[in-house]
# Entry
Amino acid sequence: MAALRDLYPQPLWQWFEQICAIPHPSKHEQALSQHIQTWARELGLVVVEDKVGNLIIKKPATAGMENRKPVVIQAHLDMVPQKNADKAHDFTKDPIDAYIDGDWVTANGTTLGSDNGIGMASALAILGSNEIKHGPLEVLLTIDEEAGMTGAFGLEPGMLEAEILINTDSEQEGEIYMGCAGGVDAQFNLPVSWQSVAENSQAVKISLSGLKGGHSGVNIHLGRGNANKLLARFLVAEARELQLQLSELTGGSLRNAIPREAAVTLCLPANKVDLLQQKMRFFEQLVQTELAAVEPAIKFSLAETSVPQQVMTVSSQQAVLNLLHACPNGVMRMSDDVPGVTETSLNMGVISTSSNQVQVLCLIRSLIDSGREHVETMLTSLADLAGAEVTFSGAYPGWKPDPDSAVMKIVNDTYQDIYQKQPVIMVIHAGLECGLFKKPYPDMDMVSIGPTIRYPHGPDEMVNIETVGQYWQLLLAVLERIPPKS
# Structure
């Protein structure tokens, strides 16, 4: 960790080191929030914690900048808690073991939290500096962005004074974001009934691992394997011949992360275990060939386990497997208006089994409401066919692009002046909070920038060191160029 604080820019990396040391997964941000509040109050800054737990920290303008338009720098406090199966880590108690790996900073077996820890660190570094030039400044740190956008939903009118908001949650240097997808959570609840295990049965656990996973918006178009879908595909194909009796299905851990791992506990006739192993190896080779370009490390494993007390009935098992296999997943449609950007997608994120049902959590994203609504009706039809209930919750709006945005022009021109090249103006297929901010602050002029982050929402997450410095330079230069109040 000591080496991180020596990277450029030091104030930012010193803060990121502190952020990594304090556990802050979604819904467990309070320790980090209190640390920041104590620090800010010691500096004499105005600190407000709103009703839902968002932090708003206000700093006066530096000398000579008092007449500039106020600006909000915005980030979220929480991080996605994902780890490799063999990694012992409690995200509510253990610090993130971050380290430098060549040109990147990454973490040992867990998500790094550069999403959105780098943006948060940049805002706090500016608050703590006496040298950076800026007008009246507000820093907004929201809670629970990754697990429901609770903070953005709960932000009330009148809390912020600024006319301009700079969101720091983008993940590609050289790209400036002026719009994003909206989304909604979908939850299937499929009732299951149970029966006794057949005599002379052997119990085994099949595990699928080694997939890359990643952000269900940013990475959904890359064609990566979804562990839940791949396991369902295998089981649908082999359940009847091998007389498989399912006891428990699990897969994924977050509805907004492409699932990297899935597992099933099942019983089958003892004399068919060898055949199961053969078919599993054949299927492993098949998907390794199909996904060789994007998933080089797919692995199936089989282990004996204790015989469960019960297994699903034939009809329940068939309904579960049909639902999982038939559920759409991945890119539904690419955008016509923004070339290269996904318009509508679906991620089958989490499967869990309880005493009376199998539950499936999905996340629908779309740049347009009609696209999201179309997928909702598809899932409703699928639920009707499977005998399941599907509910939709937590819908959040997209952020409609504003081609006349004044702050967008400032960021665009500033980037060209610094780097002598044209940035890419983008709309992102992910759920930035900007769309939600438009409800309490409809006239807020917004833009989103950030460094290059690879594999967010997964244990391979990494942030490029050089681009953190470039993002920092751009952010500071933009603050200097904010125009006077009209």
